[in-house]
Amino acid sequence: MKAARWYAAKDIRVEQTDIPVPKDNQVKIAVQFTGICGSDLHEYNHGPQLIPGDKPYPLNGHQGTTTLGHEFSGVVDEVGKNVKKFKKGERVVVEPIFRNPESPFTASGEYNLSEPLGFVGLTSNGGFAKYVVVEDYMVHKIPDNMSFEQGAIVEPAAVAAYGLQQSGMKLGDTVLVSGAGPIGLLTVQVALAMGASRVFVSDLSESRLKKAKEIGAAYTFNPKEVNIPEKVKEITGYGADIFIDAAGVQASFDAGIHSLRNGGTAVLVALFAKEVVHDALNQSLRELTVKGIIGYRNIFPQVIALISSGRLPVEKLVTNVISLDEIVDKGFEALIKSPTEVKILVDINK
Ligand SMILES: [Zn+2]
Fold first, then answer.
1. Domain over 157-292 is classified CATH 3.40.50.2000
2. Core-most of 8, 92, 124, 348, by most CB within 10 Å?
């Protein structure tokens, strides 16, 4: 079968590889659509980061050359002999986080905190291929009215939904989102679906801010042009209730913290590449909550239901659909070079 396999930074090859065979507790899926994620882009630009380079991933022994792709939808093709919940022909999506069966966090249901952290398409072969094999606990059925294109966006939408759930956002709250990439824009959509009164978005790219406006942001700010905390306080009177950092740099962190109302909550959804300087006294005096999150847990069913209801039009974020053969030029390189791209999907059958 054909697969897009990572060999090293800037070296992804679309080539023939063996069709995987499911073990007793695994499900083999015929992949339909797979989204390109920011973390795939990191592996392409300067990996290996999450791909196990030096030593194998302990939960499955995977190491080295890896078929990328963790945001995908597909059809069940075959199941291992212990799998009773799924059968051939069912339409599904995959929640790609590995769960260590021996971790106390898996036992407590906080499986995204189980170590070592691993994802399909990074610590195992993923969805930029005709077939993929995953653990049965990762699989979720999708309703017939959900398209496979929408299915491929359930995973990043789950990140956005989990971030807002963890923020404790309430009906009528104001939300500032920094970073208008796929996760930031999905956060705008989820915040509105959850009943935010006004969503503010900041980004350096005008085309991405335009997209944020299109999907319902009340105000957009370019930090090159406006003082964001001043602007947010001018509009709200005292600051934003919730700040979601989907950019993950010192400037976005500072602007967000200073835009919050006293007693407000910041959630760090982005994975920061560098350390930040943080004024802990200011946090105390203003009773701010600063919370980190990794991935999501126990939220795929809700996100699937919300997309299926039509109140989370995630398909609006798709800017291009390409074939597997085009994944380097029209996928990774396009995302690096073109600020107008948001979510690029690979149609595996194209
Ligand atoms: Zn992702």
1. no
2. 348
Q: Note the residue count of the chain.
A: 350
Q: What is the pLDDT of residues 224-243, one digit of tens each?
A: 999 999 999 999 999 999 99
Ligand 1 mean position to 112 CA, how many Å?
A: 14
CA of 120 from ligand 1 middle (Å) equals: 10
In the structure, what pLDDT confidence band is assigned to residue 339 with cuts at 50, 70 and 90?
Answer: confident
Token pair in block for residue 15: 């080539």
- CA 107 to centroid of ligand 1, rounded, Å: 25
| Residue 249, both tokens | 């740099």
pLDDT on residue 266 = 98
CATH superfamily of domain region 2-141+313-347: Medium-chain alcohol dehydrogenases, catalytic domain (3.90.180.10)
Q: Where are the domains of the chain?
A: 2-141+313-347, 157-292
Beta bridge partners of 290: 266
Distance 70 CA to ligand 1 centre (A): 6
What's the CA-to-centroid distance between 262 and ligand 1, angstroms?
32
Residue 126 to residue 133: CA distance in whole angstroms: 8
| 345 Cα: distance to centroid of ligand 1 (angstroms) | 12
Give the residue carrying structure tokens 């995987």.
Answer: 20
Band of the pLDDT at 127, cuts 50, 70, 90? Answer: very high
Domains 2-141+313-347 and 157-292 share a fold: no
C-alpha 8 to ligand 1 mean position (Å) = 19
Residues of the chain with pLDDT > 90, as a percent, come to 99
C-alpha to C-alpha distance for 166 and 312, rounded to whole angstroms: 19
